[in-house]
Write a structure and sequence with these properties.
The chain is of the alpha+beta class. It has helices at residues 28-37, 64-86, 94-97; strands at residues 3-6, 22-25, 50-51, 57-58. The protein has 3 helices and 4 strands, in the order ββαββαα. The chain has a two-stranded parallel sheet with strand order 1-2.
Length: 133
């Protein structure tokens, strides 16, 4: 019998494929672990995911030291990614600065615009309602 492991918010028979009746929800890391194992008929707590390049079995569980090393590497990489992506977020782009804009605190509406128009405010409404037509 075929089975599948997915990480999503919906699980029902045939979700992955109409012929796959056994679908299981799991966290993204567990989806990858089952994919590496090549089967859902494996106990990830005690059985290896496969064999490493050194010929030794590779298990999902890691030692505390390796977990700390991995977490530290992830923290450093996340900081680098954040700095790389957002480090220059306040830098002013010359092309954007060259765009002519109106001065003032309020937007200058253009009655002739067919793209964006001021919405009707309550100050435009009559004090008394008109007849229903």
């Amino acid at each position: 019998m075929a089975s599948a492991v997915l990480s999503g918010n919906r699980n029902f028979e045939g979700r992955v494929n109409p012929h796959v009746k056994a679908n299981y929800l799991a966290s993204p890391p567990l989806v990858v672990a089952y994919a590496l194992a090549g089967s859902t008929d494996v106990d990830l707590a005690t059985e290896p995911l496969g064999t490493g390049s050194d010929g030794k079995p590779v298990y999902l569980k890691t030692s505390g030291r390796r977990k700390k090393k991995f977490a530290r590497g992830r923290e450093v990489r996340a900081a680098e990614m954040f700095t790389g992506r957002y480090g220059n977020v306040f830098r002013r782009e010359p092309a954007m600065e060259a765009i002519k804009t109106a001065e003032g605190e309020l937007f200058t509406w253009h009655d002739s615009s067919t793209y964006i128009q001021s919405r009707r405010s309550s100050s435009d409404l009559p004090k008394e309602p008109g007849k229903i037509q």
